[in-house]
């Protein structure tokens, strides 16, 4: 079984047209009918930093009941305090870059300061019966010349596992991951920490997505982030965004490998049509 985390938040956050809350809500409700394990639906971050996400609380209030769990991205303790106040939010996602340059650029915090934030947010999650998802951003390298090796990523995964973080997702923020690097990390992490769920959040060019998914799957990863049409990427990373893995490509991969996803094909087709409407302007 492969677990798909659909990421409309990642698709919408850098979109040039301001998408009205009502339109976001309708699209998210279409996605909830598909049966994804989790929907990365919004973020509790500064509206100045990400204007597109300023209406996350309003959008959340309009979402239908669903077995799909909701994940909200937070960038600091203040955002986490907002997120844990919403009963419908199951997961808080925190992007933790192991590139000092990018962590300052993305969250205006050093790596050391961000680690303190993680500890506080983890305490908030436990107290409020939420689960924290740590994204190890720039997990496969960075374009800024900051030190990187697989050992650096492994060391940070070890530190987060020691904090009892239940889910750690390795994020290829700028699309630089190669199959050998992906294999090196997942082949070590998955057996070493059976109590942790490891995921993959890949950004990729249209030509390289399959080899990335295959390398992660073949080395034990069973949790994958994707977005319909491959839209999105991190607006704080660089000027030329590298898109997400397209959900339809991930489903094709699953079909080729005989992997069960448990998704409703008819609802997915309807969500694809709606995505074309939302992102076709």
What would your notes on this structure say?
By secondary structure, the chain is α/β, with parallel strands linked by helices. The chain has a single domain, classed as Alpha-Beta Barrel (TIM Barrel). The protein contains eleven helices and eight strands. The chain has helices at 8-12, 21-32, 56-61, 77-84, 100-107, 111-127, 150-162, 179-192, 209-218, 247-257, 265-278; strands at 3-6, 38-44, 69-74, 89-97, 131-137, 167-172, 197-202, 223-226. The protein has an eight-stranded parallel β-barrel, surrounded by seven helices. Strand 6, helix 8 (179-192) and strand 7 form a beta-alpha-beta unit. The chain is globular. It starts with a strand and ends with a helix. The model is unreliable at 235-240 (pLDDT under 50).
Question: Brief overview, please?
Answer:
The chain has 281 residues and is α/β, with parallel strands linked by helices.
Mind sketching the topology for me?
Elements: E1 3-6, H1 8-12, H2 21-32, E2 38-44, H3 56-61, E3 69-74, H4 77-84, E4 89-97, H5 100-107, H6 111-127, E5 131-137, H7 150-162, E6 167-172, H8 179-192, E7 197-202, H9 209-218, E8 223-226, H10 247-257, H11 265-278
Parallel strand pairs: 1-2, 1-8, 2-3, 3-4, 4-5, 5-6, 6-7, 7-8
